[in-house]
Design goal:
- The chain is mainly α.
- About 40% of the residues lie in helices and about 0% in strands.
- Mean pLDDT is about 75; it is low at about 1-30.
Amino acid sequence: MAPRQNAARMTRAPKASAGRTAPRRASGTAGMPEPQVNLAESPLAWLARRAGKDGRALVDQTQLAAGERLRADFTRAQLTPRVTSRWSEVSGAGTPEAFTDMVLAAKLRVARAMTAVGPELSGVLLDVCCFLKGLEAVERERLWPARTAKVVLGLALDRLAGHYGLSGSTQGRARAPVRSWHAPPEPPQA
């Protein structure tokens, strides 16, 4: 009897035929490279997988998308703190001339999102979405009662999703207006 293969193994990519290479997709939108994000380390992804007492996810898909979009902009803006020292120094690094347009645009998007959310909710968003702190750590640092960070985070994510124009449902008109096209009147034929 042949040994069973583990079903959880990753499947292999199909081999490219000789002489041809597989087409590559451009990463990012409009030529911007996407930052590498590990969703397993995100507190938002963990909250999206967990169900509350009512059976719904603690963070819905719209809130998750808004939080991960903020995290991507935060990473693109190079606002994450460094863990190690930087050994290869680029000349002019740390000066405004060293920043690329992508970094400056991402910083502007983060600033606009924080302004739209407001000062009372932006700190929780930065802690959970960008600095990847857990809800218990946020409550402990801010001296909040237990389970209040979840409520405040939900309000902040709803406001952030509104800023980004994200909605959990699509809604159209009850009835579309009647439209018709008419040809111009034909001239009388003699």
